Amino acid sequence: MQWRSIVVGLVVLRLTLSCVLWLAFGLGPNVSWGFNFPLNFNLHRIELFKEQDGATETSYLSLFEGERDEYDKRYSSFPDKLKTKMKGMAKDMFYFGYDNYMKYAFPEDELNPIDCEGRGPDVINPSNININDVLGNYSLTLIDTLDTLLVLGNVSEFHRAVKLVIDTVSFDKDSTVQVFEANIRILGSLISAHILLTDPKHPFGDVGLEDYDNELLHLAHDLAVRLLPAFENTGTGIPYPRVNLKSGVPPDSINETCTAGAGSLLVEFGILSRLIGDSTFEWVARRAVRALWNLRSNETGLLGNVVNIQTGQWVGKQSGLGAGMDSFYEYLLKSYILFGEKEDYWMFQASYESIQNHLRRGRESCNEGEGDPPLYVNVNMFNGRIMNTWIDSLQAFFPGLLVLNGDVEEAICLHAFYYAIWKRFGALPERYNWQLQAPDVLFYPLRPELVESTYLLYQATKNPFYLHVGMDILESLEKNAKVRCGYATLHHVVDKSKEDRMESFFLSETCKYLYLLFDDENPLHKSENKYIFTTEGHMVPIDERFREKQWSDVFPLEEAAQTARDTSDRLSSNTSNCERIPEERRYSLPLKSVYMRQIDHMVGLF
């Protein structure tokens, strides 16, 4: 068997070369996910052959089999006493940020937690869109936090906050803001808080406010009207990315927008339309979604990430699941769940099929078989070829979306990859290069996506593994981000240097999901009524009234749209995506130890 000796000899040579490079220069074997790049020795694909008589192949996974039970010992149980402690830590974390915002920053938009000062729009530098897209001089953090106060059971502070918003907030401001950010952070929160104040079926007891006269709904309507000019005078119906709240679209506005920014307005605009009986808002949001959908590639079914709103030409041809695209897919599914429009579900299913066909790399099954774990990469929308070797932290939302779609096993595997990155750095770098096993963009602004997916996976599986993940995240934030007056953005996930900013989503989402993760007895979990979270973490009920319109279809149905509905009817009646997790799986690791060890190795943990 001379050829077998040659194979083994080449393997040994490759192993030796890799070890020399690793010891001398720190160039370890990198993750390939099926690609060949310089210095990629692809060790985990090596198969060692034995003599034919009675022998079997040895998988590269055997490299990770070792002491498997170390994972079981660490993650297989989570005492109630520890759960109570973590719940208290999450609550304290929220109030440390919230109380200091109210003390040092309100009525400004955000808290600078290091200097203990408020932050508003950058009026000196209007081109500073990192700040001005989000901060509109409208007490952003207070508004964004309203429903979190109820989740924590603080009805009195919720009432005080609502009154402050009613008495002090106005949108008649000379502020140019991003339509997407104003929609998800402000409009969504006002709608959610209004529903909680007026809906007798909500789970938090008697939280009605005396003399409340729908003021939050009126504010939401006023803001939405001020956002409408973004949808005017575009060649495609896709909105401009920014508007001035007083004067409309700025004269110097660019004609380019991202897919997520333009296509993630339907949940909030749709609920508003159905609350007030005015189809305008849902009409413009749904028109934008359809316009983007019609620009997808005929070859792959994928969309790009940046489009010209006048010509419909793709400026950014990258297709992925992170920044610029994430919530577009999220809102296709959530719009269907809320409104029951089958076209939305069909678009989601078709998108999901294209994602699986062109973005997904790795073995077919999460918890079985050979090969690399699943990973979703960035590709060219027209041909499906990989464009780069990084993923971004926003993509960590996708396991949670998989849970909503019933694909729990796939969610388990992808979540484990992001958790491994967190374990290595104590945070998620904004971009992580899976080929180099290193961050490409080093900051972490206290984003909630990994926490959200952790919470949803725990709700789906009740596996104590996810409580441990939450504890790791909570303790990392306490250790690495806490400063004098709040929690600060990590400027550098390796050296843990900080930036003086605490974005509103930290209180609206990160703290909320952490608290809910450890609070099994929360009224939200005990309610007979079902709720869904917007992309900013605001609670809205899954309610029949949102599936009823006071108007006929706002679009004449095109043939393709009717086909979509017919197809969705068949999908809804004949199939189910729900993957049930067997009861015994709740007492073992959600992902087998060998695969956990494999993922930890692939992100450089050992």
Automatic annotation (TrEMBL):
Its EC number is 3.2.1.-. The active site is at residues 181, 326, 430, 449. It comes from Esox lucius. The keyword Transmembrane applies. Extracts misfolded glycoproteins, but not glycoproteins undergoing productive folding, from the calnexin cycle. It is directly involved in endoplasmic reticulum-associated degradation (ERAD) and targets misfolded glycoproteins for degradation in an N-glycan-independent manner, probably by forming a complex with SEL1L. It has low mannosidase activity, catalyzing mannose trimming from Man8GlcNAc2 to Man7GlcNAc2. It is a single-pass type II membrane protein. GO terms for biological process: carbohydrate metabolic process; endoplasmic reticulum mannose trimming; positive regulation of retrograde protein transport, ER to cytosol; response to unfolded protein. This is alpha-1,2-Mannosidase. The keyword Amino-acid biosynthesis does not apply. It is found in: Endoplasmic reticulum membrane. Ca(2+) binds at residue 535. GO terms for cellular component: endoplasmic reticulum membrane; endoplasmic reticulum quality control compartment. It comes from the Eukaryota. Keywords: Calcium, Endoplasmic reticulum, Glycoprotein, Glycosidase, Hydrolase, Membrane, Metal-binding, Signal-anchor, Transmembrane, Transmembrane helix, Unfolded protein response. Pfam families: Glyco_hydro_47.
